[in-house]
From TrEMBL:
It is found in: Membrane. Residues 47-320 form the G-protein coupled receptors family 1 profile domain. The lineage of its organism: Eukaryota, Metazoa, Chordata, Craniata, Vertebrata. Receptor for thyrotropin-releasing hormone (TRH). Upon ligand binding, this G-protein-coupled receptor triggers activation of the phosphatidylinositol (IP3)-calcium-protein kinase C (PKC) pathway. One of its GO terms (cellular component) is membrane. Coiled coil: none annotated. It comes from Gadus morhua. Keywords: G-protein coupled receptor, Membrane, Receptor, Transducer, Transmembrane, Transmembrane helix. Belongs to the G-protein coupled receptor 1 family. This is Thyrotropin-releasing hormone receptor. InterPro entries: GPCR_Rhodpsn, GPCR_Rhodpsn_7TM, TRH_rcpt_1.
């Protein structure tokens, strides 16, 4: 019994690995696991591929914000392919079937996708803050070329950072005879890594998002109040002389630059909120298990945590389609094999 407990303590707590018998081998569990994962991952892969295609093939969709959404879509694809699909194979076979190289490569890709997703969300949050709170500066800062450089830097940094996992995992045979892709170092060594990951790629992005979206909401409220106050005299006196009208109208455009489409900001805020909620069960589980003497590894709850992760990677295209008219039109154009630009040629200067 002690040996089995030790094995569960050493069991990996990454996204796709680590289920243990007997529950994981039951027909009921395998059926539910395979169905859920395949359903979510298939929908997510199709949706994220469509996001990448519509932005790359439609000129008016190539905006700074959409560049970050493409980076997020590619990261989500990485998570779905490297975590979701191996989870299906594990559920069906009950053991690790990808060997030593697969253990290293798949674990690396899992964390690469997870961390790039977080960084991409942080990047477009900062971009939205600059676009709304500093609109004059945004003309030179929020550009497609700068967005591409930031995205390249994010991927390079994360690729290097995640190389640490090549030295932390390996395949092993547990007492039950099953092969697992697990950790080859002591628990005390990978504990700081999990805590650093939790802080850098979850806590910090969410705190930053709370602060920046709070500032965005404040600016929008103040501008709405100012516009209402300024527009009042004009609406109240439609028959005023032309000189008086000109006098009232002149300060407005100079003092208040036009706002970017607010629907974009709402859409991105929803993406951030869902990121926080859907990652919370897994992040909480890993954090608690890092300090508990006997980790909580109930297979059904672990499956729930993983399904939330896959759902987070799959739901973003649904949000874009539901909240962005431009994405809906582009998706329809892609579906019907037509050029999306032909549908909205005058929308080239919109954000999303």
């Amino acid at each position: 019994m002690a040996a089995n407990g030790s094995a569960r303590i050493a069991a990996p707590t990454n996204v796709s690995l680590g289920l243990t018998p007997p529950v994981a081998e039951s027909l009921e569990f395998k059926t539910v696991s395979v169905f859920l994962v395949l359903l979510v991952c298939t929908a997510g892969i199709v949706g994220n591929v469509m996001v990448v295609l519509v932005v790359l093939t439609t000129r008016h969709m190539r905006t700074p914000t959409n560049c970050y959404l493409v980076s997020l879509a590619v990261a989500d694809l990485t998570v779905l392919v490297a975590a979701g699909l191996p989870n299906v194979a594990e559920s069906l076979s009950g053991t690790w079937v990808f060997g030593h190289s697969g253990c290293l490569g798949i674990t690396y890709l899992q964390y690469l996708g997870i961390n790039v997703s977080s960084c991409s969300i942080t990047a477009f949050t900062v971009e939205r803050y600059i676009a709304i709170c500093h609109p004059m500066r945004a003309k030179t800062v929020c550009t497609v070329s700068r967005a591409k450089r930031i995205i390249a830097g994010v991927w390079v940094f994360t690729c290097i950072y995640c190389m640490l996992w090549f030295f932390l995992v390996d395949i092993k045979v547990v007492e039950s005879g099953h092969v697992q892709c697990g950790y080859k170092v002591k628990r005390e060594l990978y504990l700081p890594i999990y805590l650093i990951d939790f802080a850098i790629f979850y806590v910090v992005p969410l705190l930053l998002a709370i602060v920046l979206y709070g500032l965005i909401a404040r600016i929008l409220y103040l501008r709405k109040s100012t516009l209402s106050y300024t527009a009042g005299p004009l609406l109240a006196h439609p028959s005023s002389s032309s000189s008086l009208g000109a006098q009232n109208q002149c300060p407005v455009p100079h003092a208040l630059p036009p706002l970017p489409p607010l629907q974009v900001t709402k859409m991105l805020a929803v993406v951030v909120v869902l990121f926080a909620l859907l990652w919370m069960p897994y992040r909480t589980l890993v954090l608690l298990n890092s300090f508990m003497a006997t980790p909580y590894l109930d297979d059904w709850f672990v499956l729930f945590c993983r399904t939330c992760i896959y759902a987070n990677s799959a739901i973003n295209p649904v949000i874009y389609n539901a909240m962005s008219q431009k994405f809906r039109s582009a998706f329809r154009g892609l579906y019907h094999c037509k050029g999306a630009e032909a549908s909205h040629p005058a929308a080239a200067f919109s954000t999303v």
